[in-house]
Structure formats: structure tokens, C-alpha cells
């Protein structure tokens, strides 16, 4: 089934300590954002990409799209103060015919086409579906530096992107959050507030978001592993 994707890429990435937008950092010879965009560029079911970027960086992104032959970016949106605002801005730029929309982190380049397909199908059937993996570590709840409770991890999931929605479902949730001045940690949290059920699609642990300098080591290892598997 066809879909569109909104990619917020206006963050400053302070935890990366790069002194620049982290999605513009080079990873194995290509900017991080190009690695991410290439996944959707190569997927025939992806009919368009909306990039939410800082207005001062738009020209740089436009140049990168030409250099790396990324043709599916159909619109640019102005990035907001918070990620949620950038996504909402991007949603408003989608064409009228769009029905299923994915929201994906610009700094998460290792999503697979298989997971994307399951998310799109999940959103088509249920209205909302998110990528996630089971939590592996023991999780403890603390109070004032002391363990208060060991949480049963059997029911815990570490949430990733893409998150997929029927456009009307996500727009309703975004509008409600805006009216109530609620700031969520992801799009799913906004949809959950409307009482709408959200399906979990099990992804894989390679689908990391590059947030800190250490994540670049893991990213290079994932690329090397994938290159070896193709030999």
C-alpha cells in the first residue's frame, strides 16, 4: 500500500556534541540524512517525503538532494521549536491524496523495508502502528536515588520510528495536543491521548537513532555487518 513520510530534521543534536545539525554529519562517505532518505527513495510504495528543516539550512538540504539523486522529497516544511511542532508542520504539507503517513527520525538510518511494510499494513487496518523492540535490560524505578521497584520487563517495549498512522487519526491527535498545549515524546503518545489504540510492530535492534558520539561506532558496525551479508 502507498504511503507518505514526514521526516523531522531540524534538531540541533546537542547530545551529539558536533556543533552542527547531526543529520548532516558524514557517515561512511554520505551525510546521515541521505542514508535515511535512501531507504524511502528505494521503496516503490513511498510516494513522497516531506522534510521539516530549519529555514536557514534548507538550501543545504536542497543541494544534498541533488548531489545524491534523492527525488521523492515533494515538500519542505519549516521546523519548529520542538520535534512535535516540526512534525505537525510537515503534516500540513502533505498532498490531499495522502492517506497513510509515516513519521520517521532523520537520524535513524537503519530501518528496513520489511518493517516499513508491516507498519503501513498495520496502520491501514487499525489506524495506528509503531515500531518497537522488547526491552532487554532489567528496569528499576527509583526514588531519591534508591530502588523503589523492579519493573516487570515482559510488558515493556523500547519504541522506535517509523510510526505509521491514517492521516486523519494523527491530524486529530496533533490538533488536540496543540489546543491543550500538550507536548508529547512521540506521535503515538498524542494519538493515545485521544483514546485510539496503537498497534506494536516488532522491529529489530539495528534500528538505532544516532544521538550521542558513541552511536556513530555502532552505526559503522551495522553498516559493516550489512555489507558483509551482501558479499
List keywords for this structure.
single chain, 7 helices, 231 residues, two-stranded antiparallel ribbon, Spore Coat Polysaccharide Biosynthesis Protein SpsA, Chain A, 7-stranded mixed β-sheet, alpha/beta, globular
Description:
With 231 residues, this protein is of the alpha/beta class. The chain has a single domain, classed as Alpha-Beta Complex (Spore Coat Polysaccharide Biosynthesis Protein SpsA, Chain A), CATH 3.90.550.10. The protein has helices at 32-41, 58-67, 83-91, 113-126, 167-180, 187-193, 213-229; strands at 3-8, 26-27, 30-31, 46-53, 73-78, 100-103, 128-134, 139-143, 146-151, 157-166, 199-202. The strands form three sheets. Strands 5-4-1-6-10-7-11 form a seven-stranded mixed beta sheet, sandwiched between helices. It has a two-stranded antiparallel sheet with strand order 2-3. α2 links the parallel β4 and β5. The longest helix is centred in the C-terminal third of the chain and has 17 residues, at 213-229. The chain is globular. 36% of the residues are buried. The mean pLDDT is 96.
